[in-house]
Write a structure and sequence with these properties.
263 residues, alpha/beta, 2-enoyl-CoA Hydratase, Chain A, domain 1, 3-stranded mixed sheet, 10 helices, 9 strands, 47% helix
Length: 263
């Protein structure tokens, strides 16, 4: 049995092998929000674990079914009794993405927020539709984005990463392109991503692509591992011990304004 036989072909995340299985199209398949709940995160982790054991695979495209890429991670699963499992699962996903060493593309339409933007910006190339909106709104809920705290400084620089993470604002596709948050803006971002893959990657050696992918992120991979461990610990043991972090999440779920105590 080949590793690819383990791939989900239906359900909340599905995989469509393309280009003679040299490319996988991974779809977040619960429109319109494509919320990244624990089930989806674990499915994505399994997909990247399988990718690492599929020698002929040359690229992975990740997109959201329907009008939006993703509204972000499940807010309910960030409540105090659930957040430790969610934070660990998110970290494991991104560690598996790095370990797989497969070139990844994100195909972004509509809203790409929170955990959705963490996934999209972690990819090697990001292709956005003209009407896309991208942002890290976690601060509005009284929390912060662990993965984005590491990856955005790498992708767009510290000052721009601080702008998005501290303000919680969203940017449109044009601004995202200007600051380097995405690499291309197109009417059909999937077609643009597929064209890039066909032009530049699919004629290459899959083995050599793995080595090149690992090499180009070697320094980042070490920083990511050490920084994320510390950030996850701070999130769970310091942030979630505050009144305001819990209040922000609860007020969002209860559809009311938060009552901050600044503590």
């Amino acid at each position: 049995m080949s590793p690819a036989s383990d791939l989900p072909v239906s359900g909340p995340v599905r995989v469509e092998p393309m280009e003679e299985a040299a490319l996988w199209r991974v779809m977040l398949a619960t429109p319109k929000a494509n919320i990244l709940d624990l089930e989806k995160i674990q499915l994505l982790t399994r997909i990247f674990h399988t990718a690492g054991r599929t020698p002929a695979l040359k690229a992975i495209l990740i997109e959201g079914e329907g009008p939006n890429f993703s509204f972000g991670a499940s807010v309910e699963e960030h409540l105090p009794d659930k957040c430790a499992e969610m934070i660990k699962a998110m970290g494991d996903l991104f560690r598996h993405i790095l370990d797989a060493s497969v070139p990844t593309f994100s195909v972004i339409r509509g809203q790409c927020l929170g955990g959705g933007l963490e996934v999209a910006s972690f990819c090697h190339r990001a292709f956005a539709a003209t009407g896309a909106k991208l942002g890290q709104p976690e601060i509005a809920l009284g929390v912060f984005a662990p993965i984005a705290s590491v990856i955005l400084t790498e992708r767009i620089g510290r000052s721009r990463a601080e702008d998005l993470c501290l303000s919680g604002r969203s940017v449109d596709a044009d601004e995202a392109l200007r600051i380097g948050l995405v690499d291309d803006v197109a009417e059909d971002p999937f077609a643009a991503a597929l064209s890039y893959a066909n032009r530049y990657l699919l004629s290459r050696s899959a083995s050599s692509l793995r080595h090149a992918t690992r090499a180009v992120r070697a320094g980042f991979a070490k920083r990511f591992a050490s920084e994320l461990d510390a950030i996850e610990e701070a999130y769970l043991n310091e942030l979630m011990a505050t009144h305001d972090a819990v209040e922000g999440i609860q007020s969002f779920l209860q559809k009311r304004s938060p009552q901050w105590k600044n503590a």
